[in-house]
Design a protein that fits this description.
Distance between the termini: 39 Å
Structural class: alpha+beta
Shape: globular
Family: Belongs to the thioesterase PaaI family.
Pfam families: 4HBT (PF03061)
Domain Thioesterase: 69-144
Number of helices: 4
CATH architecture of the largest domain: Roll
Keywords: Hydrolase
Order of helices and strands: HHHEEHEEEE
GO molecular function: fatty acyl-CoA hydrolase activity
Strand order of the largest sheet: 1-2-4-5-6-3
CATH class of the largest domain: Alpha Beta
Largest sheet: 6 strands, antiparallel
CATH superfamily of the largest domain: Hotdog Thioesterase
Number of strands: 6
Number of domains: 2
CATH topology of the largest domain: Thiol Ester Dehydrase, Chain A
Length: 156
């Protein structure tokens, strides 16, 4: 495996080398922040805009492309789920956590460009169920996708 990695690093295409760089980024982020590997592959770093809004800014990388060169719909859904989950889990007490129980996506246009921005807000906040919405925008501030999700609040 080491020889194969070395070969890709030295002789692989720029895209293949980028995938290796992203894999190392994912491992590093998992070790440093105990985040998921997909979070590291996507380069997820968020900011709390206010107590009701959370935001991710991420670069569009070759890892995210589908066969047409646009961002893969499954990765847009992952981004929407992640930004909503980040917001709801930040709002809970240390004894609680939330998991996704439902996710609905609308894909509005191809995700292209250099970066994406995802923003999540609350629609309803109950004690056991939280309903949220999130939108993903391209670097021209055009909405690429919109989703809603329901999260169940559980005790640790």
């Amino acid at each position: 495996m080491i020889e194969e990695l070395k070969n890709v690093w030295e002789e692989g295409s720029e895209e293949e080398q980028e995938i290796l760089r992203l894999a190392l980024q994912a491992i590093r982020q998992k070790r440093e922040r105990n985040s998921s590997f997909i979070s590291g592959f996507l380069g997820l770093k968020g900011e709390l805009v206010d107590e009701r809004t959370y935001r991710f800014h991420i670069p569009i990388t070759v890892f995210m492309h589908n066969s047409t060169g646009a961002v893969h719909g499954g990765l847009l859904a992952t981004l929407v789920d992640s930004v909503m989950g980040s917001l709801v889990n930040r709002s809970l007490s240390p004894e609680e956590y939330a998991v996704t129980t439902e996710l609905k996506m609308n894909y509005l246009r191809p995700g292209k460009g250099e970066t994406l921005r995802a923003e999540a807000t609350f629609l309803h906040r109950g004690q056991t169920l939280v309903v949220m919405e999130a939108s993903v925008y391209d670097d021209r501030n055009k909405r690429v996708a919109h989703g809603t999700g329901t999260f169940m609040v559980l005790k640790r």
